[in-house]
Amino acid sequence: MRYRAVDCAESRRTDDSRCRDRQVRAGRLPRSTSATTGDVARKVHLAHYVWEDAVTRVRTTVSGRGRGRPPGPPVDPAVRREEILDAAERVIARTGAELSFADIATEAGFARTAIYAAFADRPTLVHELAERHTQRIILQANEILAQPRPVKELLAELIDLISGFVEDNSRLHFLLMQAFYVDEPSGHGRPLFTRTADWATLVFEALFDRLGADPALVRSWASATVGAILLAAEDWSANSTTDRARLVDNLTAFLWPALSAIGADDLTGPLLPGLPDK
After folding, report:
1. What is the pLDDT of residues 162-219, one digit of tens each?
2. Tell me: domain 121-266, CATH 1.10.357.10, correct?
3. Domain coordinates of the chain in residue numbers?
4. Residue pair 201/222 in contact by the 8 Å Cβ criterion
5. For residues 64 and 77, what is the distance between their CA atoms, to the nearest angstrom?
6. pTM
7. Among the listed residues 228, 222, 234, 111, the one whose alpha carbon sits nearest the alpha carbon of residue 171
8. What letter would DSSP give residue 73?
9. Do residues 267 and 210 make contact, with C-beta atoms less than 8 angstroms apart?
10. Class at the top of the CATH hierarchy for domain 75-119
């Protein structure tokens, strides 16, 4: 045997007491009033399931969740910023320095408002790109300086490191160095040069201290060294007539005499193995 559904609204039986009793219990009909089949059809649409003489009530549970896609996990702001920076670098690699937030949003697959929520303006984003790559360069440079090798060899390897960054990221480097010539009102001018020169100043301070040289020369030597490498590598990348190894040799030959003059010929590493990377 099976359950049989009896539709009270469509029932043609005027003596269907089960339907009438259910309406009375539900408060849809007064206890002293009987209902015709038409009244039942207009007022209520009920169903009961009959198993021989038993009546089973059926209730339907409706989910309380509203319309639309369920909310996902919260977004980590640091992860979102890194994703935006990655997208910005891909755009720069394709289009060069003409970078817009609309292009970045399209590349990242985010709304433009998400880009502005992470970076207030274009100079701020460019500054963060400079910080990202300068920190990577400094981490690798510190590993070079920790080696027990002659300082002249360490200098050549540092030149090769920076030149390699310029060669591999020529369009990004050009964008980061645009502010080299004009300070941004936001204070983010020359981010790549300034950050690298600050690190180089620490290197020259330790070097001059070991050699007993005049510390008053440190900042100017550090800035001149970093500027020479960055600009020479940029020019070489745009107008290359030789390989990178030759560029490194030429820059080493240009920069080393000044260090040799203060006694760096016999100096060996490790140099500043504990130099901070930030």
Report:
1. 999 999 999 999 888 875 444 455 444 678 898 899 999 999 999 999 999 999 999 9
2. yes
3. 4-56, 75-119, 121-266
4. yes
5. 31
6. 0.70
7. 234
8. P
9. yes
10. mainly alpha
